[in-house]
Amino acid sequence: MAEKIHSKKSSNAEVKVKVEKKKTEKKVEKVKIRDIGIDVKNPPTEVCNDEKCPYHGHLKIRGRIFQGVVISDRMNKTVVVGWEYLRMIKKLNRYMRCRTKVIAHNPPCINAREGDVVRIAECRPLSKTKSFVVIEVVKRAQ
């Protein structure tokens, strides 16, 4: 009797594993990503229904592309991305370190967090201050 019960439990476990695999396969099939016109190494694997998402919505990308670090992610679907660059001062023949901060839309399928290295692309104005959207997470923060 003990063997039969054990075999039933193992068969149930196998059935559950098979069902879970089928569910994950269905999720993978449902992911449809629109071509945004830029080569992206890490496209999103999740599906979102955000209209302002370049992959699943109707947002077109144009203009400049930058890479920076997410400084803040406290706002809803918005991140602050910053990066440093050197600027030459001719009079002193020296370089000055400058910083730039840009507010960008963070779609739910990408979900960039503070400390992540991301690529952002220019798009139409999404609000008073947002004219960029996160297109890829290059490196996750640890």
In short:
The chain is α+β, with helices and mostly antiparallel strands.
Q: Which secondary structure elements does this structure contain, and how are they paired or packed?
A:
Elements: H1 2-30, E1 61-72, E2 78-89, E3 94-105, E4 117-123, E5 132-139
Parallel strand pairs: 3-5
Antiparallel strand pairs: 1-2, 1-4, 2-3, 4-5
Write structural notes for this entry.
The protein has 142 residues and is of the alpha+beta class. It folds into 2 domains: 1-30; 61-139, OB fold (Dihydrolipoamide Acetyltransferase, E2P) (Beta Barrel). The protein has one helix at 2-30; strands spanning 61-72, 78-89, 94-105, 117-123, 132-139. It has a 5-stranded mixed β-barrel with strand order 1-2-3-5-4. A hairpin with an 8-residue loop joins strand 4 (117-123) and strand 5. The relative contact order is 0.19.
Oligomer designation: single chain
Return the CATH class of the largest domain.
Mainly Beta
CATH architecture of the largest domain: Beta Barrel
Number of domain units? 2
Shape descriptor: elongated
The termini sit apart by: 50 Å
For the largest beta-sheet, the strand count, sense and barrel status come to: 5 strands, mixed, barrel
User: Which radius of gyration do the C-alpha atoms yield?
Assistant: 22 Å
Structural class: alpha+beta
CATH topology (fold) name of the largest domain: OB fold (Dihydrolipoamide Acetyltransferase, E2P)
Count of helix runs: 1
Quantity of strands, as a count: 5
